[in-house]
Specification:
Strand content: 15-25%
Distance between the termini: 36 Å
Number of strands: 6
Shape: globular
Mean pLDDT: 90
Structural class: alpha+beta
Low-confidence stretches: 1-5
Number of helices: 5
Order of helices and strands: EEHEEEHEHHH
């Protein structure tokens, strides 16, 4: 699998601290596997745990939500596992079979992982179905709905609409 850290668009951690969102970059190699990402997120987790967002090569993204004991994962496109170590790590973590050649680009994992933060599974699923959006745009919208859109956009260099 040809994944190099240079292909990572961004890797961010977000968590609530005293009711306010905090956002911080996640450094390599912490974002290379779901296990290493989960471990890194536990070090910054706040009152509602932490949310990690990693976008790769304008191709797919992974969201990992941790609290002190569990990790929940959402992969935006199962077919990315054919080319990217991080996506394969997500597939392995979720206990899914490797994607087949004829699989379509569909998400896998826990659509409810952000539900208690204000983004229900139905809305997250609808956002993932929007084929017009790039991964960074989807993650920006997710961040906005969770309440840290401006911090997210500033951190990744997006201009707010």
């Amino acid at each position: 699998m040809p994944e190099q850290s240079g292909e990572i668009d961004f890797a961010l951690a977000a968590w609530l601290e005293d009711g306010d969102w905090q956002v911080q970059d996640i450094a390599s190699p912490a974002y290379e596997t779901i296990e290493s990402l989960s471990h890194a997120l536990r070090h910054v987790s706040g009152e509602a745990g932490a949310v990690g967002m990693v976008a790769v090569a304008e191709d797919f993204f992974v969201i990992v939500r941790v609290d002190h004991t569990t990790a929940r994962v959402l992969l935006s496109d199962v077919t990315a596992a054919d080319e990217w170590e991080l996506a394969q790590s997500a597939i392995d973590f979720l206990g899914l079979p490797p994607p087949e050649d004829d699989d379509v680009e569909v998400p896998a994992g826990d659509l409810e992982l952000l539900g208690d933060l204000g983004l229900p599974a139905s809305e997250l699923g609808a956002l993932l179905d929007d084929v017009e959006l790039y991964p960074d745009e989807m993650l920006s919208e997710i961040a906005r709905r969770l309440g840290f859109g401006e911090l997210f956009d500033d951190a990744v260099g997006l201009t707010s609409a």
